[in-house]
Amino acid sequence: WHLAVHQKAPASLALQHHHLSSCGRSVGFLEPTEKLLKDHTTPLATINSQNSAQITSGSDFQENPTKSDVLSVKKNQPAVEKVLNGAGQGGSAGAAAELQGQRGRAVAGCRQQQQQWAAGVIHTRLRSWHHLARLRTSLREARHRHLENFYSRAKHLAANWNRIRTSRRTIIHIPSLGYSQGIREHIPDLAVQQNLQMGRLCDILDANVDVIYICPLALSEELLQYYHKLLGLQAAVRSGKPEDMADLQDRFRILTPEAINSFPEHHMCLATVLKHSPRTLQRLQELLQGRDAYMVGGVPHLDDLAVADQLQVPLLGPEPAVAQLYSTKSGSKRMFASAGVPTPPGEWGIHSREQLLRALSQLILDHPEVRRWLFKVDDERGGNGTAFCDVTSHLECHPWIQRERQGHGPEGWSESQARELALVKISQELPGLLAQHVQAVNEKRFPTWEKFLQTFLTQGGVIEAFPFSASVTNLTVDVLIEPTGEVTLLSSGDQLHAEGPLRSSGTTIPQRSVDPEVLKALCWKIGEACKSKGVLGYFSVDFVAFTHPQTGEQQVWATDLDLCYSDQLALTQLLLYVTDGTLDCGSSLLQGPLGAKESRSQGVQHEGTAPPAPSSPRWAVASSQLRHCSLSGTSYSLLLHSCKARGVGFDLQEKQGTVFVLYEDQKRHSLGMVTIGEDLQGVLLTFARNLFIIHQEISAPNMQGETNFKMAIRDIEAILGVTAENKLRLEEEQPWEADALKE
């Protein structure tokens, strides 16, 4: 058209789309056509797309077609030839006139093609819209059905719980992290993070329980053999004789859904992957046939309900919408308020910059004793969405406010104009102060305050006071709301902080920071509040305990609520399995059967007077978050052999020592470790010694890379008030090089 190909004409677009399989040859054929016609100033020529396709698809297609080739694909070839080959002006003029007549007809044809094309596009889009609408309706109906069946089966589980919990049953463990898509996209190694709870396998400690563990990774034969041997220790632990190890592989199954690698860019949670794995679902149905069974998930997701419905089993957990509502930072504050338990001063449900500045200004004025304020994003976990700022240290008007407060006295200050002026001064200073001094826990993700604030305001969040004390302890308590409504405490531990004070990396079990009766009362209140909101199953509560600097009394605040099965609980199941012990959270007492040495000593001590005590106190240090980049350079079998040679292992006769939790054997950047002993100081030192030995065994001289081993040691030093490294005194060991680890 006008000596150029009309690229946007419907016919031209159709040609490009229809003959895409010819690698662009049909489209490329237009270029020599355009050149030929321009050379002879031909007004209009129409391409025969069928002839063009035949020529370009042939094996004799040339990149530079001849004049005859070009002419052969013209619908109006005779008229064009007259112009190209016309003898004289008259012939050319006549041909041109004929072409002009064809041009009018072609324009009309083009308009008709455009109308037909537009009608086709509209029809196609309408069909797609109707199809999408049907899909949405079908999905909505399926989810409604899943939810109805979830509640129906929950009622049946509650009615039969007392029978089921004491009878032969199968527990399907699916450690899925059903966070929102935006959160899952920011979880590094999502599959590994979903596999930190291998300790769930230890539910087979109950002789009536069989376990099916859905694994988000394809485990190697070496790893499978490791867990077969570990779980086979049960009889040997009880007898203290290694030869009594048994093969319990008929009591548990580790199944990996076939779709784990089908959606590599979608960051799907494990429940969704399982939903799209028909072979694994069929295998599960075969294993569950005719058996009492129920499902225990992780972070609840709608696809947990879909899987439970497919398997026709109840889910021991809350409805996903309920869990998502109360697992957010703001949601947990609402739950704690409903329970009537103490919480840090703060504000929740913040979604705008103005609201944040107004709330923080008021909090600073109302709580002058608080130096550090925390900012927590609603949906983030593990400290990733937390930032902090020591506001009063940088607030220029703070000394003036202190003087005015003292001058007016407590009663006069609350009504004074100076207080209103102080509020104005604070709110004016805060924007610049926060931009300069706020520090995010995850600085890689949030290098600036503005970057953090964007996520904070998008998701919503809370402002929370950090305890105003030099001695602060964080602790975690695991709780179960049984189907019958009974609230049971399952585990408790004081947190370790290998990566800073606002990120937990493990716990010492049981907790010893708070009076067990006080803790039990707080957890019971929270459990009752959760139950009233429709929460069922496993959840964990984080507390912070500190001594008030003025009163000298202990304060305990509830800080976080996670409505899911925790890493701490999985590690607790493991330590109870390998010690054949019991944990009473009501008294914060972990007990295990006497070891060989203890039995002999107590037998001598009580000879002729009383029988030996059946058990003795135990302590454990457990972590699922130990990272060291050099682990990838050593096979697990070699690592375990080296550790055994250096005295790192589990003593069956004494029922104490160290057990590892291995997650995967591709990257091998992390592992879990549980160390059990007779006293807390000793077990902390042993845990630190283990880290020291592992680092030496796997690291080359002057190794540079990521690890949190060194910071874990430092945290243990702080707990004990001693230099743990000096206590190790290991033979033939070099001093820990300060620059050997990149922290």
UniProtKB/TrEMBL annotation:
Domain IQCH-like ATP-grasp: residue ranges: 320-585
Pfam family, one: ATP-grasp_IQCH
InterPro entries (alphabetical): ATP-grasp_IQCH, IQCH
Region (Disordered): 594-617
Protein name, as recorded: IQCH protein
Species this chain originates from: Alaudala cheleensis (Asian short-toed lark)
Lineage: Eukaryota, Metazoa, Chordata, Craniata, Vertebrata
Gene from which this protein is expressed: Iqch
